[in-house]
Description:
The protein has a single domain (about 5-50, about 60-110), classed as 2,3-Dihydroxybiphenyl 1,2-Dioxygenase, domain 1. It is about 20% helix and about 45% strand. The chain is built from three helices and eight strands; from the N terminus they run βαβββαβαβββ. About 25% of the residues are buried.
Amino acid sequence: MTSIAPVFSTSNVERWLKHYRALGFSVDAFDEGYGFASRDAIELHVSYNAEHDPARTAGCAYVAVDDADDLAREWGAVQGGRSIAPVGTDYGTREGAHIDPDGNLIRFGSRRS
């Protein structure tokens, strides 16, 4: 295996792509119902779901990063969604999160030095 691309759900593909562009991803729409976001080695897909409900259909992905604090500062400045500052874990990482406007969760972490 060489890669993985989680597929998130959204009620508005155009809004999702705009939000992920603001997070620093390169984005592209396949059509009105499907899109892609990529940054470095990370690729996310999004699919339109007319019945999207963040409590039932939102997704989650975990991303390993070089510096969780740097990414948290970058994403914390983006309008829309909600960012959660990194904290130290008892298993040697610093982990934070970002929840997009559709309730999809990206958790991210880096090893503590």
